[in-house]
Amino acid sequence: MKKLFVGFLVVCFVQFLNTAWCADGDPAIMGKTNTGDFTVQSTTDSATAVQVLDADGGAPVLNVDTDGENVGVGTAGPDRKLDVLDASDPQLRLTHTDGSVYSEMQTDSNGDLTITPSGGDVDIDANVTATSFTADPSDPATMSFVNSSGADGDTNAMISVTLSDSGSGTEDADVTFSSQVDGTMFDFMVWDASDESLVLPLENDSATPTMAFGDGDTGFYESADDTLAFAGDGNVAAYFNRYYMRGTGEGRFRLDFGVSAYNDPLYCFRADDDTGIGRAAADQLSLIAGGVEGIRLIESTGVLQKVQLTTGITATNPGVQGDNPLVSSYNRITTVGTADDAVTLPAADSGVICNIRNDGANQLEVWPASGDDCGSGVDTACTIAAGDAVTYVAIDATTWKIW
């Protein structure tokens, strides 16, 4: 009889463990399966089917929503499979060593997520897609790229953003791109926001130009301050700056960026910058040697004028317009066999000079080019007595004056 009574008490205790009553009288079933699993099941689904409360009540420490099949921590209305609510502290901590090695995640009042690892790094072993990247202006933002499989595990490349905020609408962001070279981080490109410029480094040479093409030994680099060099096949071919563009060796080309004159060439040669092509005036080219103008080409008439002495000229007999045209600035007529043997001036063009000296035995006849006037009328000859010299200067496209 005693054993029967004890058995009855055990059955009643087990029934008590397997059944609990909710406030509305619907039972929640608890049980232990044959495999040792422990289950809690509400007979009626609700948003607050199972709750764990602290002594003060309020928001539940743990809430199981069997209706939405969500679990909440610190909230009675979980909206996802796991919903953790905390308005002031990080909502989630993942711990490696209790109290010292961990990472925390927190969503703030703006809906922004902050990840705070105690070690300072966040490693993502997958592709990352983002619509924006926001940095704290007081602390330059850095995105590092690390080869985690390497023995040292150090940074292999890096993008750094330095922000300066001097007021609404005046923010600047300088961006620096860096890469590891022989164990040292090297800035290979900088975007300077205030100057709106892309800056490439000075540390380079003709064998490895900063901006290279093809196999890497042809391109551009800054060989010295304010001077850009062009390299081909690993060798310097030309230099450029605000003053000139030139080749690399003596006798190579040089183009100066100054103001040319009839005795100061712009197109010249390295180590011989007073020999080349200059500009006497609009539409005129001067061929210059050693700072002396030798030949001038005038566009409007196609006249090739030698700015030098031509001697030993024989006047033409009989003299007519167009005979023996002169091409130099200084012309010495040594033979005038008969009076009024002739020469002809070049076509008039403003600024052209023609000096004629008659060292012949007779009077020299000087004709203008067709349609020009040398002082006696259009298409009419002038004369120079034996032993005299006259300087003609063209004041426009048809008129010569004696200077």
Commentary on this structure:
The chain is built from 1 helix and 33 strands. It is mainly beta. Among the domains are: 2-85, no CATH class; 86-122, no CATH class; 144-199, no CATH class; 300-402, Jelly Rolls (Sandwich), CATH 2.60.120. It has a 15-stranded mixed sheet, with no helix packed on it. A 5-stranded antiparallel sheet has the order 11-12-13-14-15, with no helix packed on it. The radius of gyration is 49 Å and the shape is rod-shaped. Residues 1-17 and 19-25 have low confidence and may be disordered.
- Spatial ordering of strands, largest sheet: 16-17-18-19-20-21-22-23-24-25-26-27-29-32-33
Structural class per helix/strand content? mainly beta
Average pLDDT rating: 82
Q: What is the architecture of the domain at 300-402 at the second tier of CATH? A: Sandwich
Radius of gyration: 49 Å
How big a fraction of the residues is strand? over 45%
H/I helix tally: 1
**CATH-defined fold name of the domain at 300-402:** Jelly Rolls
Spans where pLDDT lies below 50 across 5 or more residues: 1-17, 19-25
Strand count, sense and closure of the main sheet? 15 strands, mixed
Shape: rod-shaped
What is the strand tally?
Answer: 33
Query: What would CATH call the class of the domain at 300-402?
Result: Mainly Beta
- Binned, the helix content reads under 10%
The separation of the N and C termini measures: 157 Å
Question: TL;DR of this structure?
Answer:
4% of the residues lie in helices and 45% in strands. It is mainly beta and 403 residues long.
